[in-house]
User: Fold these one by one.
Assistant:
Number 1:
Amino acid sequence: MTETFDLSLEQAHAYEDLFVPALFAQWVPTLLRHAGVGPGLRVVDVACGTGVVARAASEVVGPGGQVSGVDLNPAMVQVARECVPGLDWRVGDAGDLPYGDASFDASLCQSALFFFPDPAAACREMVRVVRPGGTVALQTYAELADQPGYGPFVDAVVRHAGDGARRLLGTYWSRGDVAQFRALLDEAGAEPTSSESVLGEVSFPSVEALVQTEVGATPLADRIDPAAYVALARDVRDVLADFVDEQGAVTMPVRAVFVAGRKR
Ligand SMILES: C[S@@+](CC[C@H](N)C(=O)[O-])C[C@H]1O[C@@H](n2cnc3c(N)ncnc32)[C@H](O)[C@@H]1O
């Protein structure tokens, strides 16, 4: 879970092929339920990535509805368009959405709020583009203290790479306080209507693959010498022992949080 999303087309394809099925797809039905997405509605998927939420919303709204997806990263948008050419895909910033006021019945945002430099501004934009009475639904992840797998994992990385690693690996877990999250929606102009915490899971073929994905493919790799890297993998194997099966595959719990509100 790296903190930047400056991805190439190849990386965007890898995101769609590997990370969407491994982590992101599982949250979509819950997000659609909180948003009240149903037949005939107009829906926007903000920070849509390769479009997993928009695609599912499009199945639900059917031919009488309308779905748009917007993302800052052109490669993500290109892959989204390759997957489903018929939807309205746009390159754009969550802080300045390319839609008029009240264009949608629901705006959704999955696994992205923690990347936005100004989450409050993004929430205001998500509220602006829905009609009064429309819904805004967001999904992020619980804080590290509430993550039975990633909590001990990040502690292990910090032991080997220093405390700066906590900030680098912390992005995904930085917006998990449900009370703050509800307040954000409230201040943006949407009355909070529901929230939920859901324990899902993420799998890696091995501890080495987990360490490679989460550390080896990030700027942290430059801070850990080869010996420390080996020691880190050993430490991670110990702290995550409960989540490693006989074949060596890792299946860790991941806690997601959902908050939805209705535009006043
Ligand atoms: C972890 S991905 C989630 C993508 C998608 N929602 C999903 O569930 O698969 C985070 C996405 O946020 C996008 N993003 C980051 N900052 C953004 C911004 N300011 N405006 C729009 N999209 C942004 C990234 O380009 C990336 O596609």
Number 2:
Amino acid sequence: MKPPVETVDTDVLIIGSGAGGAVTAATLARAGRTVTVLEEGPWVDPDALEPFSLQEMVAKYRHGGSCAALGRPAIAFAEGRCVGGSTEINSGLYHRLPPELAEEWQRDYRIDEFGPEVLGRYAERIEQELAVSRLPGPPPESSAVLERGATKLGWRSVEFARVFRYESNGRAVKQTMARTLLPTAIEAGARVVADCRVARLVRSGSRIVGARCEQTLPDGTSRPLLVRADHVFVCAGATQTPALLQRSGIRSNIGRGLKMHPTVKIAARFDSPIDHGDVPMHRVTEFSPGLTIGGSASRRGHVALALADSDADYADALAHWDNVAVYYAAIRSEGSGRVIALPGLRSPLVTYQLTEGDMSRLARALVHLGEVLLAAGAIELYPSVTGGVVARGPEDLVHWWDALTRNRANLMTVHLTSTVRIGENRSRTGADSFGRVWGFDNLRVNDASLLPEAPGVNPQGPIMAVVARNSDHFLADA
Ligand SMILES: Cc1cc2nc3c(=O)[nH]c(=O)nc-3n(C[C@H](O)[C@H](O)[C@H](O)COP(=O)(O)OP(=O)(O)OC[C@H]3O[C@@H](n4cnc5c(N)ncnc54)[C@H](O)[C@@H]3O)c2cc1C
């Protein structure tokens, strides 16, 4: 005989504990609602593992960090799978949604109460709560490089704010969700259950009455769990949210319209050692929001992978990896993709089609990135293009225009959005202006999936502002 399924009752069920789930949980729990958060990944103490290390990738990333959107070319992507979601592994860079995009989305998707003013109010709340701030001292050399190169070329650059608290002893502490809003939610009475994957939602007419889950226990065994709820928020991120909805039979405009910021990289060698501990906080914004230039995590492993992307002879550069750092250029893409849950498989199929326009924007992005790095004093540039010429001077960059083809480009992204878009334009959206899934009374999405387009800036700020707004709307409504 099968053992009885453990059953838990809650007022509000939140699935996923990242940027979307944690903001929702803290807002609702503080307002006195009974909240249960289910998170597929483990609880990892934010101080336990070295940031950007292999151990961190194994513990906190989905599939150890190697996922891909299929297409020509395929695009590697990464997302978090732990309590706190991708906020535990991101670089903490923070930006508000550009006001012109808020206006454009409000108009194109007919989103109620979505102007720059409304979002600005929520952004302010988030910024205060998460101590969004700038570096108290001068930037590290890896960041100053970008500012220096941009100034030489007469281009604009800015130091981005970050979700960091700076302690008096000089320690910079990233304010991830496991450090901030999840403890806030727990203090206000929320329950956070780690290692608990929601397999599907249980439906009764136009209501979701619960979720069927698989909980992994400390001894490695697993057990089924049924969570019954009055209200359900799916906050599992831009790939897993649509996959869960589709597995539950909810498909209308769900998983279509995936957007991302496709990204090219360069491993840049300098004639003296450069720091590798932090991610540069400067961004070259001369071409934003269509094209943004910045710096990546550059531990030894990242440097080795970036050098290998060019397929050039990089033995000498790797031997001097202390002098090498990795930089990127990301575009707003006019292409789009899909997330499709496949029967019998745990992971969805993710696809993305870049347009010809995207390919030429990426080539331009690579050349501009090369220009700024050479202007800043880099002596050798290894592009993320198989067989791409190693550039030692501006005259070499012309080769890159034709080199970045669908067969040779090595692209990646860490910004995925737009798989359950919001708005009253029902032909283009999966949920209403406040994230309620069309056709359901008590099912809401509240994460990166909701942004109707890629924001052209680091997305966690725009996501958190929209999620906080939707949470307030829910409290006023239900
Ligand atoms: C390496 C990296 C660097 C980044 N750097 C920046 C940056 O500097 N600035 C910035 O603004 N953004 C950055 N981002 C992006 C940003 O972190 C994300 O856009 C944001 O966290 C997305 O929020 P979310 O709530 O939609 O998803 P997530 O934060 O990814 O949270 C989703 C959570 O849901 C859980 N989940 C999924 N499926 C299920 C299920 N079936 N049952 C239970 N739980 C489930 C996942 O395990 C995950 O923990 C970065 C991302 C990465 C990966």
Number 3:
Amino acid sequence: MSQVAHADRDHALLSASGAHRWLHCTPSARLEASLPDTTSEAAKKGTLAHEIAELKLRKHFVEPMGPQKFAAAMRKFKKHELYEPEMDTHTDMYLENIQRIVHSFSSQPYITIERKVDLTTYVPESFGTSDCIIIGGKQLHVIDYKNGQGVPVPAEQNPQMMLYALGALRHYSLLYEIETVHLSIVQPKVWDEPSEWSLPVNDLLAWGESIKPIAQAAYKGEGEYVIGEHCGFCRARNTCRARVEQLLSVEEIAPLKPPLIGWDEVGEVLQRADGIVKWYNSLKEAALAHTLAGGEVEGWKAVEGRGLRQFADLDAAFAHLKANGVDEALLYERKPITAAATEKLFENKKQYKELLEDTGHVIKLPGAPTLVPVGDKRPPITNRVSPEDAFSQPANS
Ligand code: SF4
């Protein structure tokens, strides 16, 4: 089996996965290249989940393998220290989505997995690896699996997916006539359904032309530093001067005339403060790591945090307590697991839902009100009583 070692993949200076960043902030790619690449635990988990996803796709579409061989490969993944049972269900969702797309064709489409695509027509020295490409009936499907839960990644106008699609067109447009491009991102920790977006092939090609000068500037490290939500995964996010200066500048807020800011201004203040809090926490973490490694941060030092008490030897401590008159019943507590934790008792979410939610044994209570940006997909709520509600109350209630 020729499975790709995801962690060992090469990365282009202008990678497709970083396009969201270098298209907004053209000097960022060269700046990032000058900084060490550290891989977070979340990224390592993502790599593992991708390897499981690839195995499942290969089994179904490329290299049929017997149940024993598949089970042996899965056992190996399950022994990995970062393995989580939900990786199995989530990669099943990814597989099911690809099966749905494959079955939507009247005849077997072409399917390729972990395809390295050449992006140099649009972006200097760039390439990327697409999780799955399906072609048939003048349709090109590009499908990506995302394991993260912190940041939802929609397919619409997604430059990484659009670049993969352009790379696929370069490889396959001589062999297949393609009219429509479908992009789909499966992110099971965020959405139950994949995020999908389609566009005519000519629109995609026009977009590819439009980014050429931006990619040239990014390749040369030219242009202005532009801060925004794309800074979140930038290697320079903690110490980028442009970001620090803009986050901490108050000129735009300072000239506000009245002594109290109005609700019309609060939105922007909250948005900026949110960026400052995230950046502050991330910078503090980086400064701690720097200090622990022997570096100096003027005015700060690393110390031991508050320690936790724990038994040196649990059995010996409990025996000692009992010998000194403490009733054994007082030493243990029996607590029910939470409703959310019961989901992990089942192989898949469907079983859990049928047994507990559909039978009314698990009910959903409304969460505490929380303030989120207006783009959040949840509907707004209010405590205000509407005239309709007020007049629909029974008279004697
Ligand atoms: S932190 Fe933001 S502004 Fe600074 S280089 Fe990175 S993407 Fe550009």
Number 4:
Amino acid sequence: MKKIKKDKLEYYIFENISVRHCFSTRLGGVSEGVHASLNLGFREDKRENVLKNYDIICSAIGVEKENTFWTKQVHEDNIVVAHKDDRGKGLLRERTVPEGYDAIITNEKDIVLTGFSADCVLVFMHDPVQNAVAICHSGWRSTVKQIVPKVLNKMKKEFGCESRNIHCAISPAIGKECFQVGEEVSDEFIKVMPFALEYIVPDAENGEKRYIDLHGVIERQLRENGVTSIDNSRLCTMCHPEEFFSHRIMGNERGSMAGLISL
Ligand SMILES: [Zn+2]
């Protein structure tokens, strides 16, 4: 992962992904207060500021905000295949799908797949052989529901992709020293992924709490499904509140980062 700085704007790119993409930070936008400054979700922010923020980030990476496609993220494992006529949904017009989709895939050009995060992991995928991309929102619930392996399977089924050709990147998200959960959460991980035991440590100060390495679990899901090209950021959003919106720190009074990717 590499940080790009253009004046006040700062965002990250992944060097194993060769199409237009970024993971934003909160730096370089025009929003104010709890949304300062590069808020890319509407939330309670002024619409004109969010649109301006999209102009800033989209022009930096060479895409059009009119081509973005958002879905409602609901911490499930639903995957939608995006088409050209989905462009603009979310930012400029209604999201027509009533269901939530935490992952979007496409093999069509100039659709900017958009995912949101403020502690959750976003996984970026690009297959340069079959020309396909994906963005996948994998918070803990979707991780337990195996959304990442399901996206790989969907890319195989829809576009003929093969895991060994798919380049993946794991965004900044809440890190293993900060992602404290109750035992009922860590038990869900172990129940569906016995290997998760290797990524869970007890809280030394509170016997009922555990820490989960979400970056590690998701990388393992990718590797177990045949992916070898993985850029795992391992950067913690909660440890860097000056750079990232963190749900754990700010609650609902916050903006959102976004991951964008487009063929
Ligand atoms: Zn941290």
